[in-house]
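Researcher: Sequence recovery benchmark, item below. Answer with residues only.
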């Protein structure tokens, strides 16, 4: 079996030429053949570790074991090739779980980074970046499985533009919110369990947007448009966006990104599935401080039942707010 600590010959950076690439979304483009080869070399290194690369538990155990050995040894630079290979392995697990997800290149910084994007191309996860961060801070053997479950929930949500949500507690109350299971994996039960816990202010703006979106759909269900909310100097500023739901959601994200605010949120409507109750419409919100990973939350609801279709009932919330995971900074 190959010693993973000796995986040191993979290139640490990607080629920067975009000739022949295709833009997927602002700041995201398809990978070039040379970049696909870069990922393939990383996979070959990981295969040399002799583990089941399709098993999150096996990959998590390798990450924990290798990182623990590195941290307990004399000071040395992180093993770049191993950390890269682990990040690619985590990304491949994510792609295997989310229909339509694929590798792309995040070009929104001076250091282009491979990213996993949703089917719509509007949402992304950065497994290479997140694995590098966990290598430096440490993690449990279960972290890979938890990360893949949270990131998958985020990307699934990103592929469905549109629906609603119920009354929300104060930010501090999120710690006590129970969450339904997705398959065999638990979603995070509190913001503190996320890879990058959001600030109290980011939690507040997320829940404020969630409450506003829920109120809108419960009182005016025909007006279910995405909107952006930013924390401006003179108080919250909100702007709605009509038209095609996917394009409207992207316009809301662009508006938040260009606002220069300290933090912001985007709300839209879609659906969520749980093992207990199946699919239901939901309000979905992504919020973040500037330059910090986002918090993605949701609240499911039941639409109104009109007279003539059984007993008439108004639209109503279902359950409690749900923490879905994290994404890139909105601004």
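Model:
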């Amino acid at each position: 079996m190959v010693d993973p600590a000796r995986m040191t010959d993979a290139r640490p950076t990607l080629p920067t030429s975009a000739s022949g690439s295709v833009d997927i979304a602002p700041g995201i483009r398809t990978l070039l053949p040379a970049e696909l080869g870069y990922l393939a070399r990383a996979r070959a290194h990981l295969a040399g570790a002799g583990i089941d690369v399709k098993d999150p538990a096996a990959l998590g155990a390798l990450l924990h074991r290798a990182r623990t050995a590195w941290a307990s040894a004399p000071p040395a630079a992180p093993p770049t090739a191993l950390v890269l290979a682990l990040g690619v392995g985590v990304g491949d697990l994510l792609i295997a779980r989310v229909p339509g997800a694929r590798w792309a290149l995040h070009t929104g910084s001076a250091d282009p980074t491979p990213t996993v994007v949703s089917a719509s191309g509007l949402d992304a996860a950065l497994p290479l970046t997140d694995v590098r961060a966990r290598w430096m801070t440490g993690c449990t053997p279960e972290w890979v499985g938890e990360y893949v479950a949270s990131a998958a929930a985020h990307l699934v949500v990103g592929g469905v533009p549109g629906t609603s949500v119920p009354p929300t507690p104060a930010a501090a109350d999120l710690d006590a919110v129970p969450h339904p299971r997705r398959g065999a994996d638990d979603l995070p039960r509190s913001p503190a369990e996320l890879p990058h816990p959001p600030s109290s202010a980011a939690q507040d703006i997320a829940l404020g947007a969630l409450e506003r979106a829920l109120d809108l759909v419960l009182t005016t269900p025909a007006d279910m448009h995405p909107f952006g909310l930013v924390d401006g100097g003179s108080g919250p500023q909100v702007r709605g966006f009509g038209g095609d739901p996917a394009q409207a959601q992207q316009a809301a994200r662009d508006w938040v990104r260009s606002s220069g605010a300290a933090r912001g949120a985007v709300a839209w409507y879609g659906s969520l599935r749980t093992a207990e109750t199946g699919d239901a419409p939901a309000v979905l919100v992504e919020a973040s401080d500037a330059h910090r990973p986002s918090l993605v939350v949701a609240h499911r609801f039941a639409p109104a039942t009109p007279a003539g279709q059984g007993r008439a009932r108004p639209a109503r919330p279902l359950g409690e707010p749900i923490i879905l995971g994290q994404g890139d900074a909105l601004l």
